[in-house]
């Protein structure tokens, strides 16, 4: 669990916070295996026995004052008694993690399990769009073959296709069998028959370890539906115009209902991977993509504000149904046409999944991303709660979760991997703030979660090896309690700034502002938040496609993808995505400089022949036009530069695209577009600013004007 505050020394009161102009908050990565310094939690059991404050419900920690018969809460100061059983346990302090560490992870009983282990198998379903092309299906096939290699033995896998019909595959027999159900064309329609009546769910879900070859064989049979099939099903419009053929909404509604019957018995969480090649255009949930082509300027409308909101609540409502059914949906959109991800994103992010966009099939990293995602551990059924000492409180919360309908500041997370990050604003609870007479500010993060683990060998006969007894459900409680200092003056406050954490909070604020008020308002907000420690990051964020205007050629689906990606990233990789890291090498085995500014001047003055640019989703190796011809291109696989690249790729939650460019011979546009410090900032609605230096001069003039 990594926790990074925007400032390590908190402002002393509201006036100090206001005068500083700093965002005050923290980012939390709850399922990270270690904290931000690399320390791991102290593991143990008996989390349900952990004492809690009778007043604020905080957990006992090493920051609490422990007395003979009770303890004082580190957050609210209340005194709490200890019962005899707890006193007996605390007589052996080395057996109690909460007395030894402020970062603990304890097992707790699974609700309703009694003495028996809850059994649950990992369930994965691939939903493949057949209203597509051969190239699309070839990419999906290779991705699913990679996914099969990453699945643990004992997992169950199902294959479903959708177009103008839904196809279910039974691969447990000697020959794969597919059964199809046609989708009604009306926008309110459902399938005429339940999928359970078409194929029993346990025939659809096949054990991976015994059916892998037959699953692979079934994937080879996938073919795109012909335009004649789709037209016949959807009906012809005037002049033979195709009216539809991708019944995604109906297919997903039926699939989620289908899986729900085994929720809580066969599985505790089913993960559905959707491979989509275009917008839903048939049956319930179809989307009108015509709004992308409208001439908003002629109507005096803001195109960004018009295209950012969802056009229908269908997929948001479907996500709520998926949550109740124990289904998490990941969407992999492989398309360069407008698909209205603004509407579709809710099905993924609100069911605990992720949204991926691949605009180019030729260099898509989809197979690698699938393998990485399934190779990572994940938690599900999570509850995240932050508590603060009495002088301050939580403000706005950001991230892919949904708030508890009853309890304040409690967030539910359907599925959480080690990279998933959430952000919080802080504000003062009263005017006194952190006076010299109060205790230092304290933050406690509690994260309750479930994991599926292989069941320990109990001598059960191998005849039961294909049953759900291979896995069991474990529930755990992870708690971290942190104490901060307060800054005695403005200089101490500025010196304690964590620029990466601050950028993360700013990105969340900007995304929220663009969603509510439009991209122009988001850019205005960034200028309002300009502060000395991070002007370069602010400048880079203004240049990022997240805040570029519609008339600058930014595709709305790409903007939605960036919103979903950036709002879940940890602070360090988020900074890479906003302001890439440029380093240089004298040879493939010798680094020259670890960091350069993103400008052509840096390339010239360094004199280095090789540059490595890390932009998180892209890694570029650029050879200067003046590089000696004896330097091997591309760099050898056994050199330091390659080792650095491989390390960067392993640390990512998505696979970065790797590109090698020889300056003076290859097209260097892909590299030069990241040299943002020499680019204009257009469309800010504030001023026309040339490059980073002029940007700083403009800000300086604004500050002087403000101080007059």
Automatic annotation (TrEMBL):
<dbReference type="GO" id="GO:0008270">
    <property type="term" value="F:zinc ion binding"/>
</dbReference>
<dbReference type="InterPro" id="IPR050550">
    <property type="entry name" value="SEC23_SEC24_subfamily"/>
</dbReference>
<dbReference type="InterPro" id="IPR036174">
    <property type="entry name" value="Znf_Sec23_Sec24_sf"/>
</dbReference>
<dbReference type="GO" id="GO:0030127">
    <property type="term" value="C:COPII vesicle coat"/>
</dbReference>
<dbReference type="GO" id="GO:0000149">
    <property type="term" value="F:SNARE binding"/>
</dbReference>
<dbReference type="InterPro" id="IPR036175">
    <property type="entry name" value="Sec23/24_helical_dom_sf"/>
</dbReference>
<dbReference type="GO" id="GO:0070971">
    <property type="term" value="C:endoplasmic reticulum exit site"/>
</dbReference>
<dbReference type="InterPro" id="IPR036465">
    <property type="entry name" value="vWFA_dom_sf"/>
</dbReference>
<dbReference type="InterPro" id="IPR006896">
    <property type="entry name" value="Sec23/24_trunk_dom"/>
</dbReference>
<dbReference type="GO" id="GO:0006886">
    <property type="term" value="P:intracellular protein transport"/>
</dbReference>
<dbReference type="Pfam" id="PF04811">
    <property type="entry name" value="Sec23_trunk"/>
</dbReference>
<protein>
    <recommendedName>
        <fullName>Sec23/Sec24 trunk domain-containing protein</fullName>
    </recommendedName>
</protein>
<dbReference type="GO" id="GO:0090110">
    <property type="term" value="P:COPII-coated vesicle cargo loading"/>
</dbReference>
<feature type="domain" description="Sec23/Sec24 trunk">
    <location>
        <begin position="121"/>
        <end position="373"/>
    </location>
</feature>
């Amino acid at each position: 669990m990594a926790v990074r505050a925007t400032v390590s020394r908190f402002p002393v009161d509201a006036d100090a916070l206001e005068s500083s102009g700093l965002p005050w908050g923290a980012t939390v990565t709850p399922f990270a295996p270690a904290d931000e310094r690399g320390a791991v939690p102290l593991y143990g059991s008996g989390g349900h026995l952990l004492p809690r404050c009778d007043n604020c419900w905080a957990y006992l920690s090493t920051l609490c004052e422990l007395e003979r018969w009770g303890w004082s809460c580190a957050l609210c100061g209340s005194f709490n008694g200890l019962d005899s059983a707890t006193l007996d346990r605390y007589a052996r302090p080395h057996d109690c993690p909460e007395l030894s560490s402020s970062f603990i992870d304890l097992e707790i009983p699974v609700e309703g399990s009694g003495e028996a282990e809850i059994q649950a198998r990992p369930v994965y379903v691939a939903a493949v769009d057949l209203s597509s092309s051969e190239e699309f299906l070839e990419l999906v096939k290779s991705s699913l073959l990679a996914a099969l290699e990453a699945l643990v033995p004992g997992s169950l896998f199902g294959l479903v296709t959708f177009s103008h019909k839904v196809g279910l595959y039974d691969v447990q027999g000697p020959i794969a069998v597919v059964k199809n159900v046609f989708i009604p064309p009306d926008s309110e329609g459902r399938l005429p028959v339940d999928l359970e009546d078409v194929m029993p769910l346990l025939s659809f879900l096949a054990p991976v370890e015994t059916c892998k070859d037959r699953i692979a064989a079934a994937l080879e049979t996938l073919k795109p539906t012909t335009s004649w099939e789709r037209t016949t099903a959807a009906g012809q419009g005037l002049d033979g115009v195709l009216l539809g053929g991708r019944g995604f909404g109906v297919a997903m509604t039926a699939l989620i209902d289908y899986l729900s019957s085994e929720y809580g018995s066969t599985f505790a969480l089913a993960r559905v991977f959707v491979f989509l090649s275009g917008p839903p255009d048939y049956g319930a949930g179809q989307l009108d993509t015509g709004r992308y082509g409208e001439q908003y300027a002629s109507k005096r409308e803001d195109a960004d504000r018009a295209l950012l909101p969802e056009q229908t609540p269908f997929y948001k409502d479907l996500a709520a149904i998926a949550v109740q059914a124990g289904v998490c949906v990941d969407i992999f959109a492989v398309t360069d046409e407008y698909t209205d991800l603004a509407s579709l994103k809710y099905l993924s992010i609100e069911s605990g999944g992720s949204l991926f966009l691949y605009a180019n099939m030729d260099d898509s990293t989809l197979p690698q991303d699938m393998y990485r995602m399934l190779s990572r551990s994940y938690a599900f059924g999570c509850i995240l709660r932050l508590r603060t000492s009495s002088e301050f409180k939580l403000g706005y919360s950001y991230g892919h979760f949904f708030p508890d309908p009853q309890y304040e500041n409690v967030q539910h997370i359907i599925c959480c991997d080690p990279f998933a990050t959430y952000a919080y604003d802080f504000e003062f609870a009263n005017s006194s703030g952190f006076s010299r007479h109060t205790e230092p500010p304290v933050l406690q993060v509690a994260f309750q979660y479930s994991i599926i683990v292989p069941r320990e060998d109990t001598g059960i006969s191998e005849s039961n090896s294909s049953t759900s007894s291979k896995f069991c459900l474990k529930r755990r409680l992870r708690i971290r309690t942190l104490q901060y200092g307060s800054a005695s003056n403005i200089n101490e406050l500025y010196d304690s700034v964590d620029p990466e954490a601050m950028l993360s909070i700013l990105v969340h604020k900007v995304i929220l502002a663009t969603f509510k008020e439009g991209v122009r308002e988001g850019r205005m907000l960034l200028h309002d938040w300009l502060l000395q420690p991070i002007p370069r990051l602010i400048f880079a964020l203004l240049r990022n496609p997240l805040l570029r205007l519609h008339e600058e050629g930014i595709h709305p689906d790409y903007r939605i993808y960036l919103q979903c990606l950036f709002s879940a990233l940890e602070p360090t990789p988020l900074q890479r995505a906003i302001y890439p890291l440029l380093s240089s090498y004298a040879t493939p085995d010798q680094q020259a400089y670890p960091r350069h500014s993103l400008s052509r001047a840096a390339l010239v003055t360094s004199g280095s022949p090789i540059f490595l640019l890390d932009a998180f989703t892209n890694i570029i190796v650029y050879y200067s036009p003046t590089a000696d011809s004896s330097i091997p291109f591309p760099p050898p696989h056994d050199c330091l530069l390659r080792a650095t690249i491989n390390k960067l790729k392993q640390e990512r939650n998505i696979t970065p695209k790797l590109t090698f460019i020889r300056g003076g011979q290859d097209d260097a546009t892909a590299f030069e577009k990241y040299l943002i410090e020499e680019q204009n900032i257009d469309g800010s609605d504030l001023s026309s600013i040339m490059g980073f230096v002029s940007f700083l001069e403009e800000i300086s003039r604004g500050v002087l004007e403000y101080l007059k």
